[in-house]
């Protein structure tokens, strides 16, 4: 009996250590992404000012290139190019086949519900996202949300206008791989580009 209880204690300690390591790795990666993005934004704006550049902007896979500010949650997160697991481990991922702010088309950002979008369930219609890019800042207002199956790709496509789509896994407090996605659709606030 004592052997079994020792095994259970050791197993518990190993699990706690593993999850602690995972959490710490995510935090370090996210902080590094945010710092890299802020350096890029500051450097670009000092060299070129804030006007122009959106039409030709590109980013390579895993580049930290911007930040996503969520005023309601008092949170700013670094944006990384790519929406694969490696990119999402470092911050908010930008789906590479979609546009960037100011390019008058759909922009898709994704993040994990248990890391960067931990409090996403607190957002409401009318709340805002501010995307800080090297060439300017763009404010979007949430006008619609929906819950879709995890394999539903219909939310990604040509919008014909500027549209920010932000998604994360759902339900928010689900243990394991969540079966659905929470999707927020946000649109530019008039005269918000700085």
UniProtKB/TrEMBL annotation:
The keyword Transport does not apply. InterPro entries: Sortase (IPR005754), Sortase_D (IPR053525), Sortase_D_1 (IPR041999), Sortase_dom-sf (IPR023365). Keywords: Hydrolase, Membrane, Transmembrane, Transmembrane helix. The chain crosses the membrane at residues 7-24. This is Sortase SrtA. It comes from Salinibacillus aidingensis. The lineage of its organism: Bacteria, Bacillati, Bacillota, Bacilli, Bacillales.
